[in-house]
């Protein structure tokens, strides 16, 4: 009978990585004092040796399994087409993998189903914590999930998340930047194709869009709400471009709708950007593959997901209770935006 291989210990990882045992512990607990390069070397060595700290098997709240829950209220078909969530989940997974934990993802039909699902997961000790997304104004999930005692991190502006620790981007500033950029190009009739009116971040963007248009003396009434789907973005674009005083620029709340909008412009014989400029939210490969490439409000969605996962571990470990703001989306100008063909009357 073959001898059993000796168990790998934290000392083995420290020795192979050329660091102290304390540095390994700090890396796995995401504590300051270890550089990014050293942290990555430690994680790489740990993976090579097949080692994980003892606490990862049970770290998520005592006896609970090393599983993080994420419920998303979106149709499966739409979610599969949306680059944002694919990148976001990839970022979450990158941190969970480092810690030997897993993501439990479920698509739900409505918020009542989501609340019931989290209650079931928590009471059955299936998950040790949760990531809450797509906050609405006066979100009905806040009270029951806080009462449940579920450790959770919210993805959204702190004004929406009911006291849950949150990770957020400054969507209002980004929306205002988009309007100012288009106005500087000479556009006076700018429209916005947004997400559902009740969705918190869509409402924040809508208010910032309208306020900035008013500040610049422009017509800010052209806003259309959708459910983020390509066909709805196409329908909204067609309606805007058929208007007698059609906009010369359109801002979209995601990349899928912007790509659909570009197709509608081509179908109507309009030239992008001469006849209409198009600007997408959530830069992605889709934006760069479209002809002309789509200008976008860009942020590192993979990194965003990773920051959310790290924040959740801090919540579970009792070291985070407040909000974390990540970098504001920045403009990435490309071929789909430019001055209108004639500034007269625009």
UniProtKB/TrEMBL annotation:
Listed PROSITE patterns: HTH_LACI_2
Keyword Transcription (UniProt): yes
InterPro entries listed in its UniProt record: HTH_LacI (IPR000843), LacI/GalR-like_sensor (IPR046335), Lambda_DNA-bd_dom_sf (IPR010982), Peripla_BP_I (IPR028082)
Stretch list, region Disordered: 324-346
Keywords: DNA-binding, Transcription, Transcription regulation
Domain HTH lacI-type: 8-62
A GO molecular-function annotation: transcription cis-regulatory region binding
CDD domains: HTH_LacI
The UniProt record lists the keyword ATP-binding: no
PANTHER family membership: ALANINE RACEMASE (PTHR30146:SF155), LACI-RELATED TRANSCRIPTIONAL REPRESSOR (PTHR30146)
Protein's UniProt name: LacI family transcriptional regulator
């Amino acid at each position: 009978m073959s001898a059993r291989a000796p168990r790998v210990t934290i000392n083995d990882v420290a020795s192979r990585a050329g660091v102290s045992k304390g540095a390994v512990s700090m890396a796995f607990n995401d504590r300051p004092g270890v550089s990014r390069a050293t942290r990555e070397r430690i994680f790489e060595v740990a993976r090579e040796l097949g080692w994980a700290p003892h606490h990862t098997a049970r770290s998520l709240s005592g006896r609970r399994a090393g599983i993080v829950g994420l419920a998303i209220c979106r149709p499966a078909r739409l979610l599969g087409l949306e680059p944002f969530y694919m990148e976001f989940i990839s970022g979450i997974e990158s941190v969970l993998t480092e810690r030997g934990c897993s993501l439990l993802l479920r698509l739900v039909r409505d918020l009542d189903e989501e609340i019931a699902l989290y209650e079931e997961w928590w009471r059955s000790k299936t998950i040790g914590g949760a990531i809450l997304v797509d906050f609405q104004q006066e979100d009905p999930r806040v009270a029951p999930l806080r009462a449940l005692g579920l450790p959770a991190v919210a993805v959204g502006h702190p004004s929406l998340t009911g006291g849950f620790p949150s990770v957020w981007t400054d969507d209002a500033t980004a929306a205002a930047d988009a309007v100012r950029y288009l106005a500087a190009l000479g556009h006076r009739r700018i429209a916005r194709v947004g997400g559902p009116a009740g969705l918190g971040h869509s409402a924040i963007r809508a208010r910032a869009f309208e306020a900035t248009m008013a500040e610049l003396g422009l017509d800010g009434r052209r806003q259309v709400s959708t459910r983020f789907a390509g066909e709805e973005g196409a329908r909204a674009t067609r309606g805007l471009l058929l208007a007698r005083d059609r906009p010369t620029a359109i801002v979209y709340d995601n990349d899928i709708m912007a790509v659909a909008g570009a197709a509608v412009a081509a179908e109507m014989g309009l030239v992008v950007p001469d006849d209409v400029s198009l600007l997408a939210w959530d830069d992605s490969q889709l934006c760069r593959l479209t002809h002309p490439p789509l200008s976008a409000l860009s942020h590192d969605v993979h990194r965003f997901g990773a920051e959310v996962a790290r924040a959740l571990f801090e919540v579970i470990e009792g070291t985070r209770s407040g909000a974390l703001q990540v970098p504001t989306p920045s403009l990435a100008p490309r071929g789909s935006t430019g001055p209108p063909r004639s500034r007269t009357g625009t």
